[in-house]
Amino acid sequence: MYETIEPKGGVAEQGKWLVAKALGGLIPLSRSNPNDPRRKELAALEKEKAIIDSKADSLVRRELWLGLAFMVVQTAGFMRLTFWELTWDVMEPICFYVTSMYFMAGYAFFLRTSKEPSFEGFYKSRFSTKQRQLIKAYNFDIQRYNELKAMFPSTVEEELQVSSAASFDYSEKMQIGALDH
Q1: Residue 176 lies in a domain
Q2: Could you give the CA distance from residue 53 to residue 64 in angstroms, rounded to a whole number?
Q3: Which of 6, 13, 67, 116 would be a feasible disulfide site paired with 121, CB 3.0-4.6 Å?
Q4: Could you tell me the pTM of the whole model?
């Protein structure tokens, strides 16, 4: 790129221009006008999607709480049957088969969703299902939303995600520190 250095215009000036051009491609430029009406449309769609996501989250959390209530009632029922009505000799095989059914249900969940059969995996799966149902029920234009998100990638939501990602995660630091000792 730099063959000889000439004081007035020659190769040195061309080299500076090439460096500036190469660096200019690395700097992201604003794709559109900040007053673009499509930004307002995106903001309205983001508000509507936030409502849908909030509703989906509350529905899934309700399901999880009902699941916990079912487990508590089942455990209390098994305790009652084990210690008052029947004996452990009768209840042991029943408990074994119930536990085996839970394992099979977890395995079937994995086969169906390809997600880890954990509480978090179940939550994510149910959330996406509820979200899809609510998007359909609210007639939310997800295709238009995705188009606008691609056009305007830097929105307030993403800026908040970047700022929260930049914050320090103490739990990770503690885990790393635990390995040092």
Answers
A1: no
A2: 16
A3: 116
A4: 0.61
